Amino acid sequence: GDALAQATVGLGTVTDPGDGLHLSRCTGVLIAPDLILTAAHCVNGDPLGSLVVFFRGSEPVKPVRTARVTARYSPDPGQMTSNVVDVDLNALSLDLAVLRLAEPVRDRVPVPLATDPSRVPRSLRVAGTGVSGRTVGRLRTVGLTPVAASSTGLTVARVNGGRVCFGDSGGPVVGQDRRGLFVWGVASAVLSRQAPCGNLVVIAPAAQVFTSPGMR
């Protein structure tokens, strides 16, 4: 199967801000048998917990798993090396979060992380669950072409023949080299005049954050 799709998850996070329970929907990716990487704004507000769903093909499959936030990171946005797009980097939510699953997953292969934020891949792919009704959306993947990057690996990319929507937040953005797939970052924001979808996506770089052994 597709190495990206089998490691991508739909994420439902429950918070209680005081006026009833709220559920936010995002996307994430398995980066270790018990760790999920996503965008931190997906798990803001001291969540009660997160529900994690894997996919077979484009359809969500049981069992539904549970996870809790274990760490948050705020990458340095750096300086844009080209002004192809007019973006105020400091206004964007670029935070990343890692969730720990209650039980490690044995039947899925985690995707390793990039470790060199200075080398933006020429082509990327994003996986996301979007939103369809009140349930976890169908999983889809689409190609991205980077159009601008900062000195620290923050990347703005154009969606090839599609759009990225609300619900795709936190979705893994991957590149490929001779060793296989690696996570370049996560979909952090959509640049659009017509919410909730757009054809430019801001990618928070994962490489900058994690430099532990075994992650490339």
Could you please describe the fold and organization of this structure?
- With 216 residues, the chain is an all-beta fold.
- It has two domains: 3-101, Beta Barrel (Thrombin, subunit H); 124-205, Thrombin, subunit H (Beta Barrel), CATH 2.40.10.
- Helix content is 0%, strand content 49%.
- It has no helices and 16 strands.
- It has strands at 8-15, 22-32, 35-39, 49-56, 59-73, 96-101, 124-128, 131-132, 135-136, 140-149, 155-159, 164-165, 172-177, 180-191, 197-198, 200-205.
- A six-stranded antiparallel β-barrel has the order 1-2-3-6-5-4. A six-stranded antiparallel β-barrel has the order 7-10-11-16-14-13.
- It is globular, with a radius of gyration of 16 Å.
- Residues 211-216 have low confidence and may be disordered.
Which CATH C-level class of the largest domain is it? Mainly Beta
Counted beta strands = 16
Question: Structural class, from helix and strand content?
Answer: mainly beta
Q: Using the 3D structure, state the CATH architecture of the largest domain.
A: Beta Barrel
Query: Can you give the helix content as a percent range?
Result: under 10%
Roughly what fraction of the amino acids lie in strands?
over 45%
The unreliable regions are: 211-216
Q: Name the helix and strand elements from N-terminus to C-terminus, one letter apiece.
A: EEEEEEEEEEEEEEEE
Coarse morphology: globular
Biggest sheet details: 6 strands, antiparallel, barrel
Whole-number count of domains: 2
Give the helix tally.
0
**Gyration radius, in Å:** 16 Å
CATH topology grouping of the largest domain? Thrombin, subunit H
Distance between the termini: 22 Å
Mean pLDDT score: 81
The CATH superfamily of the largest domain is identified as Trypsin-like serine proteases
Strand order of the largest sheet: 1-2-3-6-5-4
